[in-house]
Each structure stands twice: as structure tokens, then as C-alpha cells.
């Protein structure tokens, strides 16, 4: 079943002092973080034919009463897209997919970083619906089966933030 709206955990943001590692967070702190910021990951359907494009849409949503910052050096430098099968194994990456994976560099360099401010109650699309920017079928060798996709946004430039999406389920037939 496709999960259209996902809730994430933000480990640090500009909205409050940095939080301790997840293992040290209390349930109250986790709820505060979950309520403040989320990433919504969606696919245009639940089932796809083998070889058919599978475009992913990704948007950040600010649920707080304060502005927050997202950094960009292009999508792939601070976004990690991972697909796993029913056995929690990652399928083979295509050459194009390997290039995107190798571009993931949340620890810099930051010389080309661009600041995007997201106001209270606002959202920002990072990979639009129908966009060829994130095509799971181009990124992975996907045979018939059931899969889950997760997206991690990780940036260490201040304000540092790591956001992990819940899995979005889909199948290839």
C-alpha cells in the first residue's frame, strides 16, 4: 500500500538548540521534532510495469511557527534515495544510479550551497511530481516484486538537519 504522507524525524534545526542523538531523546522531544517539520514523499501510483518510469515527488513541510532553512547544492548532494525489496535488500544500482549515490555529500563542499527559507505553515517541493529528476526505474534494476523507497535529507551546514522519510511502498509487475 502506498503511504502518501510520511512523517520524519529531524535531528537538528534552526528552530531550537540541537537535540541529542535519537537514542537519548525522550518521547516528548521526539513528538516535538515530528510536529515541527516533515518530508512528504509520494509516487504517482502504487503499481508500475517493468521499465516504466517511477518518478518520485519530495516536499518539505514546516509545521512550526518559525521559519526554517533547507540548503541545496542540487538534489543529489544532500538527498539519499534508497529502494529496498521485501527482504530489505537494496536492488542493483544502474550506472546512472551509482553516479547519483556517489554525489551524496552532506559534509560539503558548501561553496555552491543555496539557502531556501520555508516560512511557518509553508512547504517547498524538492523533486516535483512527474519530474525526471528522481526516476526510481532509471536509478535501480527493478524486476517484478514489491519495494519500499525512503529519502534522507542530510545537510551539515548550519542549521544542520537530517530528515528521514518513512517508507513508501510500491510494486513492479
Automatic annotation (TrEMBL):
This is Uncharacterized protein. It comes from the Bacteria. The lineage of its organism: Bacteria, Pseudomonadati, Planctomycetota, Planctomycetia, Isosphaerales.
